[in-house]
Amino acid sequence: MKKPLKTGTEHHLTFTVKPEHGIDFADESMPAVLSTPWLIWQLEHTARGAVLPFLEQKESTVGTHLDIEHLAPTPLGMEVTCRARIIFIDGPVVSFQLEAWDSSERIAKGTHKLRIIEKARLQRRVERKS
Known about the structure:
130 residues
């Protein structure tokens, strides 16, 4: 690492919900809303964004645990802000509190763990499986 990580470090990511981010319940006469998989993708990238500035070029992160509650629907066109806050560091494992809000309410909450890894080691492990 370039510099040590600290608990309390936060990162925010904001995006607008587009049709490709939604789930469409067309056959059920329900509105298209932000899909849970897309929301999780954004939350994971928000957590990565909190850690990446601290890493050396040879390092990256991989997710190891995720526990998310998707609490409320968000319609297409609405802006969503995701927040990741580091709550615990155990060697290479970094734990986060995650939240997401649209302009009306909190839409998700949960926890996430990332492991800091060496890119070359991951590449070797993948090559052995290929």
